Amino acid sequence: MSREKVILAYSGGLDTSVCIKWLMEEKGLDVICVAGDVGQERQDLEYVRQKALQIGAVESIVIDMREEFVNDFLSKALAANAMYENKYPLVSALSRPIIVKHLVEVAHQYGAKYIAHGCTGKGNDQVRFEVGIKALDPDIEIIAPVREWDLRTRDEEMEWAAAHGVPVPTTKKSPYSIDDNLWGRAIECGILEDPWQEPPADIYTLTNDARVQTPDEAEYVIISFDQGIPCALNGEPMSFMDIILAMNEIAGRNGFGRIDMIENRLIGVKSRECYEVPGALALIQAHKAMEDLCLERELLHYKLEVEQKWATLVYNGLWYSPLKEALDGFCATTQRLVTGDVRLRFFKGSCVTVGRRSEYSLYDYSLATYDAADAFDHSAAKGFIELHGLPTKVWARQRRKVGRDGEI
Ligand code: ARG
Predict the structure, then answer these.
(1) From the CB of 186, is ligand 1 less than 6 Å away?
(2) Which of these ranges, 42-56, 101-115, 346-360, has the smallest mean pLDDT?
(3) Superfamily of domain 177-295+337-357
(4) What SS3 state is found at 6?
């Protein structure tokens, strides 16, 4: 009888390599590995593909997800100016749902009953994988070997690997856990687990150290948006993906885009996280500047609340959920008139918005100016303030009457 199949989200690292053998031996399954290219910097994915086969996978697939990642995932994140806890632009939280989508597709293609991932029991990623898979196919069963097996330390894992013919890394492992894609890099573990320790210089690869490595001249960049999507850089039409790559380069060389924060994970633990997100942060900043100019006040203010909710949902693994989809609809509507140019100035770790213009601009010079061209009706302000301040005045009168002037 042929064996049941499992689709494994494979990265090429020790954990997921051990997963292949473990799923074969402990669960008696045929393993089909899927590795996704979401624009991570380090990997030779053909090597990763071969490695899975060498360990014993019956099939090993590499999928280039970059275009789809940009067009269907990052574009929505930018429309929502997504920043979890107002700081973290959701690097890993955005790549999980696209990987999930492809895992489920491959599972259907091969008639696999199971999907497996190499996440531990402490992070957010396990939640994102599993809730995402269930959203797309509630009948698929999930296996999380790392959560299940009894290999407590890395040494134990390496011993198990060696004993079962899984290649053991020969170079010393980096003390950090890193996850990266086009939208940036997440760096955890090692000395970073002490929140008082300044991050060592060696954790960064996309951004220069603004104190010693960055250019001495400011660099100006014009980003053009078409309905909320970046479409040109310094006047030159470019795809959103190429703009992300270029902005990672430009912002990175000027030392902009480092984040060092304490973050609240969904599972209830606070963790110290470092990120470098030069392109993402610069593009979100520029996009917000465009919206400041083009969105009507009530819409803009309401959108700020929607943005927070969107980021929290996606952080918490609810990319595929009815509320998140409905909020996407709201954000998409808001983007119709977000078209125009934003000028940014980079200099030694900073990124400042110094200009913005749009054919849909709601900025009205004759209303805003303090000079002779002023068209604002000053006399209307008097009555407006009278009514706006009326509840406060009524309250103040009452407090005075009882001898409690100004006290709540
Ligand atoms: N804390 C971030 C998040 O939950 C980054 C996770 C990075 N994942 C990793 N396996 N290193 O989105």
Answers:
(1) yes
(2) 42-56
(3) Argininosuccinate synthetase, chain A, domain 2 (3.90.1260.10)
(4) strand
